[in-house]
Fold this protein.
Amino acid sequence: MLRISTDPIDTSHELRQFEKLADRAGGIVTFSGQVRPHASKGAVTTLFLQAYSPLTESGIESAIAEARTKWALDQVLVLHRTGEMSPGDTIVFVATASKHRRAAFEAADFLMDYLKTAAVFWKKEKTETGAYWIEPRDEDYKDAARWAEKEPV
Amino acid sequence: MLRISTDPIDTSHELRQFEKLADRAGGIVTFSGQVRPHASKGAVTTLFLQAYSPLTESGIESAIAEARTKWALDQVLVLHRTGEMSPGDTIVFVATASKHRRAAFEAADFLMDYLKTAAVFWKKEKTETGAYWIEPRDEDYKDAARWAEKEPV
Amino acid sequence: MQKILYFGRLSDVTGKSEELLDIPVTVETAGALREWLDTRFDASGALLDPTVRIAIDSEITFDSAPVHDATEIAFMPPVGGG
Amino acid sequence: MQKILYFGRLSDVTGKSEELLDIPVTVETAGALREWLDTRFDASGALLDPTVRIAIDSEITFDSAPVHDATEIAFMPPVGGG
């Protein structure tokens, strides 16, 4: 399941709902990402995230479908916030459920790599010194490349 | 932080508390494991988990300390339930917080491998056909061995 | 009238994130549209940058794609992830 | 009186998970205690199995360890993880 919205993400609530959905799956992995308080250009006051529907959604749906072919997953959830956010706000919440904890870990990791590098979002950090559009970091590309080199276990 | 208790684990509540503790860390990974409804010997009616204090605690604390030397972690939480449980009950909840999502993922994965293979627990599955003490699975040993072969990124 | 979208840093260059436009009949392709808009906004090549991709009606496309049947044309700088 | 703990499947063999015992003075080491208890419970070697480790006062120890100063002695079959 995928939801992109400007509404705040309540990870605690989402985990509870996901557990109900993934009833007795065995293992659940979640990742939640928060807006960082510091950027290379100083303290962040706000983060603005822009999506382009339905391109952003279809890209993420493809990544979810790919994860489902690579790993045996009972349930997958991707929540992504857009619009204006403050440091500490949750930007993204990914949850995976599987009988095998390795599958749940790797699928969540894979989805996060997609979301952080290839997902159709543009983001602008507002800091004390100005506002900057952020391009992908090299580290992110390296993370995503891992999945091309290695077969899932 | 580590807590071993016969009390039920409320993952949703724990995630909320952990997020407060890991204020603005960047990324949080959680793993929750539930009692599986099926075992090799049939449908599970109850699972009984036995710990030996303080040996169980000191072993897990060592694993947490090792994770903290391997990865830059802001916060670590391990909750483990003992005593009698039913299918679907949460046995274990691990949460890691880090500025780097790779660190949070790998540390949670590492701790789960420790908990599933080397942690001082004995467990007995009660099924329709009887009660059986469960010894470690080969798959679990293989998972844990991964950490000896590879340097963390 | 066609809807043109400018994403990410391009909206800073154009001063808007979207607009409704009558594309001149002589501007037939996505590539020609890039050039026409770049001149129009005095964008110094920001719209010509090959890393800026064009989507027509939510499909990433090439510079050779015709634009006059399009409802929505989007200019997309490299995506930064979430 | 010393406290003896039997963990995991050993409690099925001994019929109890713990007991208070007077260990005979002739049973001086952890290894000797294994043998004495195995006979006492008619355990057919379950307590002699080398995969069964002994902890004295919460420290994993060897069969050569003396037992008479111990407060708590635990017999631990292989741990199965959580």
Summary: Chain A is about 35% helix and 35% strand. The CA atoms of residues 32 and 93 of chain A lie 4 Å apart.
